[in-house]
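ASSEMBLY PREDICTION REQUEST
Request ID: AP-0331
Submitted by: J.K., bench scientist
Number of chains: four
Total residues: 212
Priority: normal
Notes: Please return the full assembly, not individual chains.
Input sequences:
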Amino acid sequence: MDADKVFKALGDPTRRKLLDLLCEQNGQTLGQLCENLEMARQSATQHIDLLEAANLVSTVRRGREKLHFINPVPLHDIYERWVRKFERQRLSLLHDLKQELEGEDR
Amino acid sequence: MDADKVFKALGDPTRRKLLDLLCEQNGQTLGQLCENLEMARQSATQHIDLLEAANLVSTVRRGREKLHFINPVPLHDIYERWVRKFERQRLSLLHDLKQELEGEDR
DNA sequence: CCAATACGCAGGTAAATACCTGCATGTCAA
DNA sequence: TTGACATGCAGGTATTTACCTGCGTATTGG
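STATUS: Completed
Returned structure:
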């Protein structure tokens, strides 16, 4: 998993909207997706290319159409590497901060 | 939670490294953090400003020092909104793709 | 066939980003 | 008090990003 590509891909509202659209209905064509975006088709294609590069979306060609499918695996990997790690220490981290703030009062 | 700020903050290797550094030892000063980064202190400050804007890091001034603490809450919010949602549909999403691929063979 | 449809490719521009240098301010310790 | 130290602030530049327009290619249905 390339965390950089995944986070950069998610760091744009248009691309997050694309994922939401595909979550509502998986396997949509480029044209269908563009109907819900207020930008040129070519611009949407560039966003989708980044989602594909991050492996968040897979595509299948059917004739002249290109179908898009979500791949949730990278999101799960993000969870394992970047959420659980900090979640586990959540209480102790807040504890550190609280102690520091209390230290100021003394 | 501002998902855009959080994802954009996470979409840079330097800022992810800063979070890792703070996870190893919470409450470090700017100077301590800079020792582990190969860039000017002023550049690191700009990265930290983005982490603060995303509420991923909180700071406390102690005299002439600035101490940095991780706040894991936004990460957990990301999990709730962007991981669990897709995780829940993981199997069905893959099912959609598989069906589409099999459809190609017929 | 051939016109409409769905998409790919090339390039160009404005804004955002990630760095830097130089200098100013505030704090501590001798 | 004053010099050393930790950080803040201002601005400038090169790269990346997010759009666009224009045109080319491939597929389908009548």
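REVIEWER COMMENTS: The radius of gyration of chain B is 19 Å.
SIGN-OFF: pending second reviewer
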